[in-house]
């Protein structure tokens, strides 16, 4: 191959990497500033609800069980996260506090917020 073709390919690769990186950064920044709305469990009927949220590089699908206006179980059915697996501990905080207004897991803020948003979306279905 000629040097021109290799150089052109390298330039194209670098440009695509920059565009992909910029788009990923915008999505991540949007999640960082995203609000998680607390759900009034007094308005949620007994049942099992699913919710999902996709932030691009991080996504989650959950199943939430509610009985007598209390969250009794949260199952993370899917969590695509890169290195955010520790964020799954957010479930314990939510169950203990019975609220989505919990602190994110340190070092896994994006995954924590995505899981919380998926739970919020699921609980909204029970209102």
Automatic annotation (TrEMBL):
Signal peptide: none annotated. One of its GO terms (cellular component) is membrane. Residues 56-126 form the FMN-binding domain. GO terms for molecular function: FMN binding. This is FMN-binding domain protein. The lineage of its organism: Bacteria, Bacillati, Bacillota, Clostridia, Halanaerobiales.
């Amino acid at each position: 191959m000629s040097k021109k073709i290799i150089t052109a390919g390298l330039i194209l690769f670098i440009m695509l990497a920059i565009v992909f990186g910029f788009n990923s950064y915008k999505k991540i920044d949007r999640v960082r500033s995203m609000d998680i709305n607390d759900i009034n469990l007094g308005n949620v009927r007994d049942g099992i609800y699913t919710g999902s949220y996709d932030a691009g590089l991080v996504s989650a699908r959950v199943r939430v069980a509610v009985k007598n206006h209390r969250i009794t179980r949260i199952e993370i059915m899917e969590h695509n996260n890169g290195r955010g697996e520790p964020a799954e501990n957010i479930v314990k905080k939510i169950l203990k506090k019975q609220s989505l207004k919990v602190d994110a897991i340190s070092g896994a803020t994006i995954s924590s917020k995505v899981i919380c948003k998926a739970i919020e979306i699921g609980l909204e279905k029970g209102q």
